[in-house]
Every structure is written in structure tokens, then in C-alpha cells.
Automatic annotation (TrEMBL):
Residues 5-322 form the Hcy-binding domain. The keyword Methyltransferase applies. This is S-methylmethionine:homocysteine methyltransferase. Pfam families: S-methyl_trans (PF02574). Zn(2+) binds at residues 238, 307-308. Coiled coil: none annotated. The keyword Methyltransferase applies. GO terms for biological process: methionine biosynthetic process; methylation; S-methylmethionine cycle. Its cofactor is Zn(2+). PROSITE patterns: HCY (PS50970).
């Protein structure tokens, strides 16, 4: 609905919102080959039904949000495959449609329980990946693109316009390595007409407990976004879990907006081989994802989920912990 802040509406009645976990990790676990510049967006062409199934399983696990398979879906990326603009836009809209269909199926299932099992009607977040995702070389973990704000606005504008009108509840501008890209997207939100989705969360990838991936103080980035009305929440994703508590504290000290976090599982990504180097699960050998997530919630995070290498089992564990604590 035009002008609605779905996140504020949710948090007005519930203390927290559970995000989903990794999409690509689950797709690969189910046999998909994502060693590809399009990553999970490849399956929008080849196996869309598998994407829908993963969204459904995250809803069943307890997620209140499905984040679409559009992270690496760009006009430039599709063009390299010989896919024209009209078809590329259709595939972007399909990414949202698959999540919406999975939500409808979940909600029908939940109707068999009194009060839908205590669940609220879930949200769909249309993923807007960074410029570095289109490059497919790991730049979202380094930044330093060599592009100014205007150039980044020009890159993001066409896709943002498509996704904003595709039927999602919120846009997920995620894994941003630098402030200049975050500002570009925040400014583009102000351009969106009220006939579609106009609110977004903005989430940074970070190199440590104080800095974004490009090396800028996260405090500066958060303060710079605080005045943008259509930025519904600010946070951190695809960052090692051991840095999250510090980053939440930094974010909370510099904005009144809701804080969101969805770290990866604590492994290191190799952009050359496009593989994850196995490390301690969730960044700590003796603490589960759910245990750490409860700490992040106590620190002030209100939207919590997982990024690369997290699973429906992680989200289910978090759902059970939060349900038991209410």
C-alpha cells in the first residue's frame, strides 16, 4: 500500500521481527548450481519453483519476512546472458511474486491453527543488492567502486523502480560496503511515487566492529541516513557474528530508527573461487546462532535474521527462543 511503513506498523504491535536466513545456501543444499555471476537469480530463469519452496520453508520455520531472489538480478547482469530489458524486468517481478506465493501458501496452512498459531501475516522484502553484486567479484566486501553518488543513482534507479512496483512490502537495500552507495539509494527512495513500495531498510557489510567494508566509521554512515524518512530501518548484514554486538551499539547510538542485523555464519568468502572457507559456526564454537541473536536483541536490534550459510534450522531455533521468552 502506498506510503505505508510496513516495518513501523509491525513493530508497533510486536517487539521484534524475525528475518529469514540465507537463500543461496538452501538452494545449493537442494542441488542448485549457483557458481554463476547471476548467483541465486539464475534460478529465476531455470528453477523458480525451488526459490518458492525455500521461501515457504523459512516461513514455516518462523520467519516473518521473505527476502527475494533479486539480490544479483540487474539489467546489466541479465544483459550479459542475452536477456533483454523487458524480460529482465519480468524476472525481477517474478522474484517478488514467488515470495508472495509462498507467503499465501504458508498463511493458508497456518489458518488450520487457532489465531494462525500466533503468527502475524508475514512481509515480503524485495532485495536490492549493491553495485558490487552486479560485478560478481566480491566488491560488496571491499567498496572503493570508483563511482560517485550520481553514477550509483543512475545504476540503481531502473531496478529500484521495477522492484518498488512489484508488490513487495519493503525494499531490502543490503550488503552495502560504503556510505556513498547508501546515500544514493536513500535519495532514490525519495524519488519513488506513492503508487508502490516507498520504504526500505538499508544494511551495510562491515569489516570489523566499528567500520563498514570500505573502512568508513559505521557511526558516520548511520548518522548520514538518519534524516531520510523513507529509510525504515538501518543495520548490518553478511558480517561476521563476532562483530555484531559492537555494530549494534554503534548504530543504536546514532539513529532512532529500528536496528536490523542478519550476519553470516562466521565463515570467510573467497570471491575468486566463489566459495566459503569453513570456520567456527556462527563465529563461536560454544554459542549457537539463537543464543547470540538473543544478545543482539538485548543490545537493541529489533529485526534479526541470518545471511550466508545460515539455514531454516537457525531461524527455527530463534523463533522457538523468542516464543518461549514472550
Amino acid at each position: 500500500m502506498a506510503g505505508v511503513d510496513a516495518i513501523a506498523d509491525w513493530l508497533a504491535t510486536r517487539p521484534r521481527l524475525i528475518l529469514d536466513g540465507a537463500l543461496a545456501t538452501e538452494l545449493e543444499r537442494r542441488g542448485a548450481d549457483l557458481n554463476d555471476a547471476l548467483w541465486s537469480a539464475r534460478l529465476l530463469v531455470e528453477r523458480p519453483e525451488l526459490i518458492r519452496a525455500v521461501h515457504l520453508d523459512y516461513f514455516r520455520a518462523g520467519a516473518d519476512v521473505a527476502t527475494t531472489a533479486s539480490y544479483q538480478a540487474t539489467f546489466e547482469g541479465f544483459a550479459r546472458r542475452g536477456i533483454g530489458q523487458d524480460e529482465a524486468a519480468r524476472l525481477m517481478r517474478l522474484a517478488v511474486q514467488l515470495a508472495v506465493e509462498a507467503r499465501a501458501q504458508f498463511w493458508d496452512e497456518a489458518a488450520a491453527e487457532p489465531d494462525h498459531g500466533g503468527r502475524r501475516f508475514p512481509l515480503v522484502a524485495a532485495s536490492v543488492g549493491p553495485y558490487g553484486a552486479m560485478l560478481a567479484d566480491g566488491s560488496e566486501y571491499r567498496g572503493h567502486y570508483g563511482l560517485d553518488e550520481a553514477a550509483l543513482m543512475d545504476f540503481h534507479r531502473p531496478r529500484l523502480q521495477v522492484l518498488a512496483s512489484a508488490g513487495a512490502d519493503v525494499l531490502a537495500c543490503e550488503t552495502l560496503p560504503c556510505l556513498v552507495e547508501a546515500r544514493a539509494l536513500a535519495r532514490l527512495l525519495e524519488e519513488l511515487p506513492d503508487s508502490g513500495t516507498t520504504r526500505a531498510w538499508i544494511s551495510f557489510s562491515c569489516r570489523d566492529g566499528l567500520h563498514d567494508s570500505q573502512g568508513e566509521p559505521l557511526a558516520d554512515a548511520v548518522r548520514a541516513l538518519d534524516g531520510f524518512e523513507r529509510v525504515a530501518a538501518i543495520g548490518i548484514n553478511c558480517t561476521a557474528p563476532q562483530h555484531i554486538a559492537s555494530l549494534v551499539a554503534v548504530a543504536r547510538a546514532n539513529t532512532a530508527k529500528p536496528i536490523l542485523v542478519y550476519p553470516n555464519a562466521g565463515e570467510q568468502y573467497d570471491p575468486v573461487t566463489k566459495t566459503w572457507l569453513v570456520g567456527s559456526a556462527c563465529g563461536g564454537a560454544h554459542r549457537s546462532y539463537a543464543d547470540q541473536a538473543m544478545d543482539w536483541a538485548e543490545g537493541g536490534a529489533r529485526l534479526i535474521g541470518g545471511c550466508c550459510r545460515t539455514t531454516p534450522a537457525d531461524i527455527s531455533a530463534l523463533f522457538r527462543r523468542w516464543t518461549a521468552s514472550v
